Amino acid sequence: MMDHVNWAVIGTGTIARRFCADIRHSRRSRVVAIASRDAARAQSLAGAIGPDAKGGSLDAALAEPSIDAVYVASPTAQHRDDALAAIAAGKAVLVEKPLAASAAEAQEIADAAARANVLCMEAMWMRFTPGVRAAKRLIDEGRVGTLHGLDAHLSYPNAFDPKSRLFDPALGGGAHLDLGVYPLSLAFHFLGTPDEVVETAVRAPNGVPVAGAFALRYRQAVATLGFGFLGEGPNDAVVTGSKGRLRLRAPFLCPPALSLKRSGAPSSAAPTDGSLSPVRTGLRGTLPALKALARPLRERPIPTLYEGSGLQYQVDHFTDLLAAGAGDSDVMPIQESVAILAILDRFALVVSDPR
Q1: Strand order of the sheet with strand 244-248?
Q2: Strand-by-strand arrangement of the 120-123 sheet
C-alpha cells in the first residue's frame, strides 16, 4: 500500500478550493501543487493550503516526479486538454464532472488512459458519499425489492449572465452539464443503462440549456429526472420498488439522511370475491383498523454522517485503486461516464434563427 498520494490540482475556482479543503479529511492524500494559467492565483491557493504546497504552471506540476495524481478542476471545456496532458505525463487523473464537454472528448480521454495504462476516473463525488453508498447497499440487498422508479431533481437559481462559466458555451456552460449530470448519473448507478431516453429543455437567449428533464425507460422501471437554474427544486431523490420506497433527503448528492418505507403486505383476511367484509364498530374495532392503516405509512429514518462537504470520499476510493494498480473504477467506470455524456450531448447548443 502507498503511504500517501501527492496531488496536483489544476484550477483555482470554487470546486478546486473545496477539493483542497476536503482532502484534509482523506486517509492518505495531500495536495502539494496548484497549477493554473494565472500564476498569482495558483500561488495564493497554494499558500492557503500550507508551506508544503507550491503554486505554478501546469507544465511544472506535470514534470514534478513526486506528483502521483492530478485533479482536473478547470472549466469543462478545458477538461479534455488538461486530462490528456496529465495522462501523457504518466499521472493518474481524477477529472471533475462531467468528464468532458462531449462524449467524443470523453472517449478520447478514455482511449488515451487505456493506451498509457494510466488510471483515469470522472470525479462523480456523489457516488462515494456515505448516504449514496448506503442507499446503493440497501438497493443491492433487496430492501426496496425490484426497482420500478426513480424520481430525482436538482435545481438551484442562477441568474442568466452570458459571461459566467455557467452560461458560456465556450467554457462548457449549461445546466445540463453543471447539474443534469448528477440525476442522470444516479439513474445509471441505481438502475443501469436505459433502453430509451426522452429529453426536453428550456434555453437561455444564447442557446444553452437553463432547465430540462429526462425520462429514462427500463424494462420494468422509469426514471424521471429534472435539473435547472431557474429556481430551487426539491433536490431529493426517491427510489420506488416492489417492497417499498427509499428517499435520499436533500441534497441527494450527499444526503444527510435516508428514509425507508416498507410496503404493507396485503391482509390475509381481505375478501377475494369482491364482497364487503363485516364492519366492526366501537373502539375495539377502530384501533386495529387505525394501526393497519398506519403500518404502511411508517418511514424509518437512516442518518448518514459525513465530514466536510464530501469530496474526500472519492479521493479515498481513487487512492485505493491507485495502490492496487487498478486500471478503472468499479463504482464509476470511465465508459459509463462516456455513455452519460452521450445522453447529455442531446442538449447541445441550439442557437435560434435571428430572422
Answers
A1: 196-203, 209-217, 222-228, 147-155, 237-241, 244-248, 257-262, 300-303
A2: 54-56, 29-35, 5-10, 69-72, 92-96, 120-123
Q: Using an 8 Å Cβ cutoff, are 251 and 284 in contact? A: no
Structurally, at CATH architecture level, domain 130-270+295-305 sits in 2-Layer Sandwich (3.30)
Contact indicator for 227, 213 with CB cutoff of 8 Å: yes
Contacts of 115 (CB under 8 A, 6+ apart): none
Rg of the chain taking only CA atoms, in angstroms: 24
Say how far apart CA 160 and CA 164 lie, in whole Å: 8
As averages over each run of 10 residues, the pLDDT of the chain (355 residues) reads: 88 97 95 96 96 96 97 97 98 98 98 98 98 98 98 98 95 97 98 98 96 97 98 98 97 98 57 39 54 61 94 98 97 98 89 43
Identify the CATH class of 5-125: alpha beta
Q: Rounded to an integer, what distance in angstroms lies between the CA atom of residue 60 and that of residue 325? A: 25
List the grid coordinates of 227: 435539473
Task: List the end-to-end C-alpha distance of the chain, in Å, as a whole number.
Answer: 63
